[in-house]
């Protein structure tokens, strides 16, 4: 533990320049599928987790999807670029910066995904036919980082594919929460796990969030932190849902948006605040 703390402290000094940046603004390609029916992934050199997270339990978060993008030079290859959440059978909620470039035909959604290295016969792979991005999404201010993705056909609900309810109100400060994703587990080596990772976090107060990030807006954004230094989100986690449990039901109150680099070294990560966009989301996700 002491060694890890010393390493993190040295790492923080090495990367002293701090700037808020969307995790997946400049994504790099990593193949997660070659044949549309056979999931494959590059071998990993380590067993690192989502910077302090752990392997999720299969089916525990059935609303989580993998948003994938086609490689323009190799059109048979798709790459995991962001997360997202199922809001109904034909619509996915994600971050605007995940889909604000490229053609609609470049994207697809994989629901029921758990292990990117294997086809587990729970995956549902569906092309995207429409990208609905907030017209006031602003890369400079990082505000309104939210989008709805429409699928070409309807998902089939089961134990591994199910929708998430959207929170009408953001929960209080320090509310126990969770976030899941296939984001980088090691910022330096740019590695990512095959298995979906889960990280326990808690909601950060607006005042603390504003002190951490100069871009923080307490109407359009919300922040969450971990209990341990050197934990947090990273590249390819963007678009994923921040959730809490109420009456034994998961409710989504955030969409992974941006953080301070290098990943995991700062007190909080930042999310689009779902309650501020709930009416817009519902208006743009009608079947």
From TrEMBL:
Pfam families: Trypsin (PF00089)
Signal peptide from the UniProt entry: 1-16
GO terms for biological process, alphabetical: proteolysis
Highest taxon, organism lineage: Eukaryota
GO CC annotations on file: extracellular space
CDD domains: Tryp_SPc (cd00190)
Keywords: Disulfide bond, Signal
GO molecular function: serine-type endopeptidase activity
SUPFAM superfamilies, per database record: Trypsin-like serine proteases (SSF50494)
Residue span(s) of domain Peptidase S1: 50-286
Coiled coil as UniProt keyword: no
Similarity comment: Belongs to the peptidase S1 family.
Name this protein carries in UniProt: Peptidase S1 domain-containing protein
